[in-house]
Amino acid sequence: MAESPSAVSGILFVVSAPSGAGKTSLVRALLEVEQGLKLSVSYTTRAPRPGEVDGEHYHFVAGATFEAMIADGAFVEYARVFDNAYGTAEPALREVLQRGDDLVLEIDWQGARQVRERFADAVSIFVAPPSLAALEQRLQGRGQDSDAVIAGRMAKARDELSHLDEYQYLVVNDDFDVALAELRAIVAAERLRRPRQVARYQRALAEMLGPQGVEA
């Protein structure tokens, strides 16, 4: 069952983008400048990469543990990518949101669909590149992938872009600083929505408005 907006204190921001669009860098920068905003840490069966810390970048678990979590209904969304699996634990999401903290969840469009089914008030943001040519240039500039892998990522990017109409907000990452400012504006706007402000300032509003108060 989807949560009603009044049932969850924090805001869940769901951010999706094609590989190379700059989503991860933007979210990392956003977390550095916005207080009360945390990053959801997913579970994965893949091995840690150099520099990755368990519990910070991912919760690294064995395949059997991951399958047991699926059987227990622990994931709000999960996906299998090649030989690895990735998933978002629902209890962890709810715990953070119920504390009143806002949370950022980086997932693809398929995962975003699953999350919206359980969290109807989730705020969805799609980060797009300024053009496919720019995206391909960024992927080549990484120097991490072969031409065949880049071609595969480009094909997947076209499919991902076809789902941007499922999102509430669109940020085009042409200029990083501008895109970051737009993300911050979205966070600010969502935090200022009347129901959330009424809940936050309920006592002061009751004093100003008298017994009738104000409806959330």
TrEMBL record:
UniProt keyword terms in alphabetical order: ATP-binding, Cytoplasm, Kinase, Nucleotide-binding, Transferase
Taxonomy, superkingdom: Bacteria
Enzyme class: transferase
PROSITE patterns: GUANYLATE_KINASE_1, GUANYLATE_KINASE_2
Major place of residence: cytoplasm
A cellular component term, taken from the record's GO annotations: cytosol
GO molecular function: ATP binding; GMP kinase activity
Cell compartments where the protein resides: Cytoplasm
Database matches in CDD domains: GMPK
A Pfam family the protein falls into: Guanylate_kin
Assigned EC number: 2.7.4.8
Family, similarity comment: Belongs to the guanylate kinase family.
Function per UniProt: Essential for recycling GMP and indirectly, cGMP.
Protein name according to UniProt: Guanylate kinase
